[in-house]
Amino acid sequence: MQTPTNITLNKEKTLLTTTFDKIDYPLSSEYLRVYSPSAEVVGHGKGQETLQLNKENVTILRIQPTGNYAVILFFSDDHDSGIYSWSHLHKLALNHDKLWREYLQKLKNSGLTHPQI
Questions:
Q1: Residues 40-67: pLDDT tens digits?
Q2: Which domain CATH number covers 28?
Q3: Which residues, including other chains, have CB under 8 Å from residue 70's CB and lie 6 or more apart?
Q4: Which string of DSSP letters, residue by residue, matches the chain?
Q5: 117 belongs to a structural domain
Q6: Could you tell me if residue 114 is inside a domain?
Q7: Would residue 115 count as lying in a domain?
Q8: Rounded CA gap, 104 and 107, in Å?
Q9: How many domains does the chain have?
Q10: Which structural domain range is residue 69 located in?
């Protein structure tokens, strides 16, 4: 299991930077929200995922450590049920570009667009 050596939230509360192996990975609050590991987002099995919409202005209100293996992120849209394990954060960090493209493609496939495109 990869453990981050540092986690910081910018003062605007829109960018969480995780550090793994001395490399900083800036992750937007929107990205973290749409890839929340909660059942509300991923469902309870394959094919039960819920596409998250209109999360571009969400912020992270606070971060709560959970044991020595994860954090809970409290978002401004009242979402706080995802437990972001170190392995989940590491996966999100390493696969950011691919996962973000997949999210944008899912929006497009649903007939929606992202405001930043």
A1: 999 887 888 999 999 999 999 999 999 9
A2: 3.30.2020.30
A3: 83, 84, 85, 86, 88
A4: ----SEEEE-TTS-EEEEEETTEEEEEEHHHHHHT--SHHHHTTSTT------S-TT--EEEEEEETTTEEEEEETTS----EEEHHHHHHHHHTHHHHHHHHHHHHHHTT---TT-
A5: no
A6: no
A7: no
A8: 5
A9: 1
A10: 6-109
